[in-house]
Amino acid sequence: MVQSHQELAKLQIRLRRKLFSKYDGTVVPLKNKEALELIPIMSIDHIRSVEEDKGAMTISVTFTFTWMDERLSWNSSLYNGIRTLTTNRYEFHPNGIWLPTINLADMPGSLKQQDIFLNPEVDVLIQNSGTVKATIKSLVTTPCYFSFGDYPHDYQNCSFTLMTPYYADVFRFAKWGGVDFARNLMENRVTDAEDFQLIGVESNGYFMMMGSELIKEIKPALFSASVLPNKYGLIALILTAMTQFLFAVTMVTILPDNYNGTPIIGKMAFFLFFETIALIGWKLFSLIARTRLKKQIQRDAKILGTPNPESVQVLKTVIYVDLGLIAYLAVQSLVTIHIVYLH
């Protein structure tokens, strides 16, 4: 029995809906909390140019990255033997399939690292076992360190680095993989440019596990304090006391004999003034805290697979305080109107 293209398309749509119904593309696909291992393979298609004056070489390369995402596995027998799904990065899900962040470093003429997965030409293939394979074709300009002391039999080295922002206990490159440079695959590729010929490619992987050790140290410290910080403090204190005394004498002569304190309207004005200053300060703090905490939660969820509970709790507390202040100000406005009406 031969499936029609229409039936196959319907099955693929149903399979994609099933795979991505609860899929979160911001979470690293860890298995049993073990580090995700990614297999990198780079194939050199051809050398585009060698710029001796700029110390750079431009090559056309194909990157192939393979990793496991068990959330994207399925039983092929339930879908008439469909074993693979293939398309680009944007067609799977509104939030996108999880793709690693891999930066090209040491690029000449660029101060910023370039994420190669931001390339729109990312082809993704998913197998029913949960294996994900991403293929990217790109032009890469690498720095070269030219030395012509042995011309015309000199050897020049050009290199670049692939870096990730993840910790080694979350993500690392697999020990095998690297550069695909088999001679039988190079028949249709241009491996020389001008006076240079590509004779070999090497790749190495590095990662570092960082640890910490807490050491308790007690250091004696001396703290001294005095009421008057220096010799001018006593003079300033006497002048301030005299000013307060003169102010009190002046107020006694100005105020009427039946004066018994600040009117309630005046007290309310003072209270509302200082309350407004406090609310402005809180609102500035709230805006900054919300923005930074949301970014921190998103970054932790992407790198660690789960947000930091403390950050989530602090964000909830800030939101609850904001809601409480809204209710408080609504009640306060009614009370203020009532007091003003009575007085």
Automatic annotation (TrEMBL):
It holds the Pfam family Neur_chan_LBD. InterPro entries: Neur_chan_lig-bd (IPR006202), Neur_chan_lig-bd_sf (IPR036734), Neur_channel (IPR006201), Neurotransmitter_ion_chnl_CS (IPR018000). Keywords: Membrane, Transmembrane, Transmembrane helix. Residues 14-167 form the Neurotransmitter-gated ion-channel ligand-binding domain. The keyword Membrane applies. GO terms for cellular component: membrane. It is a multi-pass membrane protein. It is found in: Membrane. The chain crosses the membrane at residues 232-256, 268-289, 318-341. GO terms for molecular function: extracellular ligand-gated monoatomic ion channel activity; transmembrane signaling receptor activity. PANTHER family: NEUROTRANSMITTER GATED ION CHANNEL. This is Neurotransmitter-gated ion-channel ligand-binding domain-containing protein.
